[in-house]
Amino acid sequence: MDNMKKVIVLSLGGSLIIPEKSNFKFLDKFVKTLRKNYKTHKFVVVCGGGSIARKYIDALKKEGKSKKELSMAGIRATRTNAQFVMQLFGKSESNDILPKNMQEIKSNLSKNNVVICGALRYTKDSTSDSTAAALAKYLNSDFINLTNVDGLYDKNPVTDPKAKFIPKESWKDFQKRASKIKFKAGQHFVLDQKAAQIISKHKITTYIIGPKLKNLNKALKGKKFKGTIIQG
Known about the structure:
Strand order of the largest sheet: 3-2-1-4-8-9-7
Helix content: 40-55%
Number of helices: 9
Low-confidence stretches: none
Number of strands: 9
CATH architecture: 3-Layer(aba) Sandwich
Protein backbone atom coordinates (compact mmCIF):
# COMPACT_ATOMS: atom_id res chain seq x y z
CA MET A 1 0.00 0.00 0.00
CA ASP A 2 1.21 3.54 -0.75
CA ASN A 3 2.10 4.78 2.74
CA MET A 4 2.06 8.41 1.59
CA LYS A 5 -1.67 8.26 0.88
CA LYS A 6 -4.27 8.63 3.62
CA VAL A 7 -6.86 5.83 3.73
CA ILE A 8 -10.49 6.89 4.26
CA VAL A 9 -13.36 4.49 4.92
CA LEU A 10 -16.58 5.87 3.41
CA SER A 11 -20.02 4.53 4.27
CA LEU A 12 -22.14 5.36 1.21
CA GLY A 13 -25.78 5.37 2.32
CA GLY A 14 -28.12 3.23 0.25
CA SER A 15 -30.53 6.20 0.25
CA LEU A 16 -27.95 8.01 -1.91
CA ILE A 17 -27.27 5.08 -4.26
CA ILE A 18 -30.89 4.07 -4.86
CA PRO A 19 -33.41 6.49 -3.30
CA GLU A 20 -36.30 5.05 -5.33
CA LYS A 21 -34.64 5.10 -8.75
CA SER A 22 -30.88 5.04 -9.38
CA ASN A 23 -29.29 8.35 -8.41
CA PHE A 24 -26.96 8.72 -11.40
CA LYS A 25 -26.31 12.47 -11.12
CA PHE A 26 -25.11 12.09 -7.52
CA LEU A 27 -23.10 8.93 -8.25
CA ASP A 28 -21.35 10.52 -11.24
CA LYS A 29 -20.28 13.44 -9.00
CA PHE A 30 -19.27 11.00 -6.25
CA VAL A 31 -16.92 9.09 -8.60
CA LYS A 32 -15.43 12.39 -9.86
CA THR A 33 -14.93 13.69 -6.30
CA LEU A 34 -12.95 10.59 -5.30
CA ARG A 35 -10.88 10.80 -8.50
CA LYS A 36 -9.93 14.41 -7.66
CA ASN A 37 -8.36 13.13 -4.44
CA TYR A 38 -6.40 10.07 -5.65
CA LYS A 39 -3.05 11.88 -5.29
CA THR A 40 -3.48 12.11 -1.54
CA HIS A 41 -6.06 9.44 -0.60
CA LYS A 42 -7.19 5.85 -1.05
CA PHE A 43 -10.80 4.92 -0.33
CA VAL A 44 -12.80 1.97 0.95
CA VAL A 45 -16.46 2.51 0.00
CA VAL A 46 -18.97 0.44 2.00
CA CYS A 47 -22.38 0.52 0.29
CA GLY A 48 -25.68 0.59 2.17
CA GLY A 49 -28.91 -1.16 1.16
CA GLY A 50 -31.32 1.78 0.78
CA SER A 51 -34.79 1.34 -0.70
CA ILE A 52 -33.92 -2.11 -2.13
CA ALA A 53 -33.12 -3.40 1.37
CA ARG A 54 -36.28 -1.89 2.85
CA LYS A 55 -38.48 -3.42 0.14
CA TYR A 56 -36.96 -6.88 0.73
CA ILE A 57 -37.28 -6.48 4.50
CA ASP A 58 -40.92 -5.27 4.38
CA ALA A 59 -41.92 -8.22 2.17
CA LEU A 60 -40.16 -10.77 4.40
CA LYS A 61 -41.68 -9.22 7.54
CA LYS A 62 -45.14 -9.91 6.12
CA GLU A 63 -44.04 -13.54 5.70
CA GLY A 64 -43.14 -13.63 9.40
CA LYS A 65 -39.40 -14.16 8.87
CA SER A 66 -36.93 -13.89 11.77
CA LYS A 67 -34.84 -10.78 12.56
CA LYS A 68 -31.75 -12.59 11.31
CA GLU A 69 -33.44 -13.40 7.97
CA LEU A 70 -34.48 -9.73 7.62
CA SER A 71 -30.89 -8.62 8.26
CA MET A 72 -29.52 -11.16 5.76
CA ALA A 73 -31.86 -9.72 3.11
CA GLY A 74 -30.47 -6.27 3.93
CA ILE A 75 -26.89 -7.55 3.60
CA ARG A 76 -27.64 -9.02 0.16
CA ALA A 77 -29.06 -5.64 -0.91
CA THR A 78 -25.83 -3.88 0.15
CA ARG A 79 -23.85 -6.31 -2.00
CA THR A 80 -26.14 -5.75 -5.00
CA ASN A 81 -25.62 -1.99 -4.61
CA ALA A 82 -21.85 -2.50 -4.23
CA GLN A 83 -21.71 -4.46 -7.52
CA PHE A 84 -23.51 -1.57 -9.21
CA VAL A 85 -21.23 1.14 -7.71
CA MET A 86 -18.14 -0.92 -8.58
CA GLN A 87 -19.12 -0.79 -12.26
CA LEU A 88 -19.08 3.03 -12.19
CA PHE A 89 -15.31 2.95 -11.60
CA GLY A 90 -12.72 1.78 -14.13
CA LYS A 91 -10.97 -1.57 -13.67
CA SER A 92 -7.63 0.21 -13.25
CA GLU A 93 -8.89 2.18 -10.24
CA SER A 94 -11.09 -0.23 -8.24
CA ASN A 95 -11.63 -3.91 -7.48
CA ASP A 96 -13.79 -5.93 -9.89
CA ILE A 97 -14.75 -8.72 -7.45
CA LEU A 98 -16.49 -8.00 -4.14
CA PRO A 99 -14.21 -8.74 -1.16
CA LYS A 100 -15.55 -11.19 1.42
CA ASN A 101 -13.52 -10.07 4.44
CA MET A 102 -11.26 -7.34 5.81
CA GLN A 103 -8.05 -9.05 4.74
CA GLU A 104 -9.24 -9.10 1.11
CA ILE A 105 -10.12 -5.40 1.37
CA LYS A 106 -6.63 -4.57 2.67
CA SER A 107 -5.03 -6.63 -0.09
CA ASN A 108 -7.18 -4.89 -2.76
CA LEU A 109 -6.26 -1.50 -1.31
CA SER A 110 -2.58 -2.08 -2.09
CA LYS A 111 -3.46 -2.40 -5.82
CA ASN A 112 -6.35 0.08 -6.22
CA ASN A 113 -7.29 3.66 -5.41
CA VAL A 114 -10.80 2.54 -4.41
CA VAL A 115 -12.14 -0.69 -2.92
CA ILE A 116 -15.92 -1.19 -3.01
CA CYS A 117 -17.80 -3.60 -0.75
CA GLY A 118 -21.17 -4.20 0.91
CA ALA A 119 -21.75 -5.51 4.44
CA LEU A 120 -19.29 -8.38 5.03
CA ARG A 121 -21.18 -10.74 7.35
CA TYR A 122 -24.18 -11.00 9.62
CA THR A 123 -23.76 -9.38 13.02
CA LYS A 124 -26.73 -8.93 15.34
CA ASP A 125 -28.28 -5.42 15.39
CA SER A 126 -26.01 -3.82 12.82
CA THR A 127 -26.02 -2.32 9.33
CA SER A 128 -23.34 -1.59 6.72
CA ASP A 129 -22.34 1.35 8.99
CA SER A 130 -20.88 -1.14 11.50
CA THR A 131 -18.92 -2.82 8.69
CA ALA A 132 -17.48 0.60 7.77
CA ALA A 133 -16.67 1.53 11.39
CA ALA A 134 -14.97 -1.86 11.99
CA LEU A 135 -12.96 -1.37 8.79
CA ALA A 136 -11.87 2.11 9.92
CA LYS A 137 -10.58 0.49 13.13
CA TYR A 138 -8.87 -2.35 11.20
CA LEU A 139 -7.21 0.06 8.74
CA ASN A 140 -6.51 2.72 11.40
CA SER A 141 -8.28 5.34 9.28
CA ASP A 142 -10.79 8.16 9.58
CA PHE A 143 -14.41 7.33 8.83
CA ILE A 144 -16.80 9.37 6.68
CA ASN A 145 -20.50 8.57 6.65
CA LEU A 146 -22.23 9.95 3.53
CA THR A 147 -25.95 10.11 4.10
CA ASN A 148 -29.12 11.88 2.93
CA VAL A 149 -29.06 14.54 5.70
CA ASP A 150 -26.29 17.12 5.95
CA GLY A 151 -25.01 16.06 9.38
CA LEU A 152 -26.18 15.18 12.88
CA TYR A 153 -29.37 16.71 14.31
CA ASP A 154 -30.96 16.43 17.74
CA LYS A 155 -34.16 15.13 16.06
CA ASN A 156 -35.00 13.73 12.63
CA PRO A 157 -34.75 16.79 10.31
CA VAL A 158 -36.88 15.06 7.66
CA THR A 159 -39.93 14.94 9.95
CA ASP A 160 -39.17 17.80 12.38
CA PRO A 161 -38.48 21.27 10.90
CA LYS A 162 -37.33 22.48 14.36
CA ALA A 163 -34.52 19.90 14.52
CA LYS A 164 -31.22 21.50 15.62
CA PHE A 165 -28.01 20.92 13.64
CA ILE A 166 -25.01 19.66 15.68
CA PRO A 167 -21.66 20.56 14.04
CA LYS A 168 -19.49 18.70 16.58
CA GLU A 169 -20.13 16.02 19.20
CA SER A 170 -17.91 13.91 21.47
CA TRP A 171 -17.71 10.14 20.99
CA LYS A 172 -19.32 9.59 24.40
CA ASP A 173 -22.30 11.90 23.72
CA PHE A 174 -22.83 10.44 20.27
CA GLN A 175 -22.88 6.90 21.63
CA LYS A 176 -25.46 7.98 24.25
CA ARG A 177 -27.63 9.50 21.51
CA ALA A 178 -27.42 6.37 19.31
CA SER A 179 -28.13 4.00 22.23
CA LYS A 180 -31.51 5.69 22.87
CA ILE A 181 -32.77 4.43 19.51
CA LYS A 182 -34.02 0.84 19.31
CA PHE A 183 -32.38 -1.07 16.44
CA LYS A 184 -34.52 -2.13 13.47
CA ALA A 185 -33.31 -3.81 10.26
CA GLY A 186 -33.30 -1.16 7.52
CA GLN A 187 -33.40 1.64 10.13
CA HIS A 188 -32.92 5.39 9.51
CA PHE A 189 -30.32 7.10 11.73
CA VAL A 190 -27.02 8.68 10.71
CA LEU A 191 -25.11 5.67 12.15
CA ASP A 192 -26.22 2.40 13.70
CA GLN A 193 -25.72 1.66 17.40
CA LYS A 194 -22.88 -0.83 16.88
CA ALA A 195 -20.98 1.66 14.69
CA ALA A 196 -21.42 4.29 17.42
CA GLN A 197 -19.92 1.84 19.97
CA ILE A 198 -16.94 1.08 17.70
CA ILE A 199 -16.06 4.71 16.94
CA SER A 200 -16.40 5.66 20.64
CA LYS A 201 -14.40 2.73 22.01
CA HIS A 202 -11.57 3.08 19.48
CA LYS A 203 -11.68 6.89 19.20
CA ILE A 204 -12.16 6.97 15.44
CA THR A 205 -12.54 10.48 13.99
CA THR A 206 -15.88 10.36 12.18
CA TYR A 207 -17.51 12.79 9.76
CA ILE A 208 -21.24 12.85 8.94
CA ILE A 209 -21.71 14.53 5.55
CA GLY A 210 -24.81 14.98 3.39
CA PRO A 211 -25.39 14.59 -0.35
CA LYS A 212 -23.69 17.86 -1.41
CA LEU A 213 -20.38 16.46 -2.59
CA LYS A 214 -18.53 19.78 -2.38
CA ASN A 215 -18.60 19.16 1.40
CA LEU A 216 -16.93 15.76 0.99
CA ASN A 217 -14.28 17.36 -1.22
CA LYS A 218 -13.68 20.15 1.33
CA ALA A 219 -13.42 17.65 4.22
CA LEU A 220 -10.86 15.57 2.28
CA LYS A 221 -8.81 18.72 1.64
CA GLY A 222 -8.96 19.77 5.30
CA LYS A 223 -11.13 22.82 4.54
CA LYS A 224 -14.24 24.05 6.37
CA PHE A 225 -17.33 22.05 5.34
CA LYS A 226 -21.01 21.67 6.28
CA GLY A 227 -21.34 18.47 8.28
CA THR A 228 -20.66 16.99 11.72
CA ILE A 229 -17.37 15.86 13.25
CA ILE A 230 -17.51 13.23 16.00
CA GLN A 231 -14.34 13.16 18.11
CA GLY A 232 -12.94 14.07 21.50
